[in-house]
Design brief:
By secondary structure, the chain is mostly helical. Helix 1 runs antiparallel to helix 2, helix 1 runs parallel beside helix 3 and helix 2 runs antiparallel to helix 3. Helix content is 80%, strand content 0%. It has 3 helices and no strands. It starts with a helix and ends with a helix.
Length: 70
């Protein structure tokens, strides 16, 4: 796996958060992907932090939407 594949996989999973039925479990999974890619030096810390911020934003939006719908 190269850097581009790691980044595209993480970006894809982050984008799916906005449609998930259980954002908490999916967030945990994606956070693990980010941590592993950073640990394996497929992405740098700056990129990992950017992905974490994106993930938190999507997670918060989806959780709020689901609370309003319930």
């Amino acid at each position: 796996m190269n850097d581009a594949k790691a980044s595209s996989g993480i970006e894809y999973e982050i984008s799916k958060i906005s449609r998930t039925h259980n954002p908490a479990q999916d967030r945990t999974f994606v956070m693990g992907m980010i941590e592993m890619a950073e640990f394996a030096e497929l992405i740098d810390s700056r990129t990992a932090n950017r992905y974490r911020d994106e993930l938190d934003t999507k997670f918060t939006e989806r959780s709020a939407y689901l609370r309003r719908s319930a």
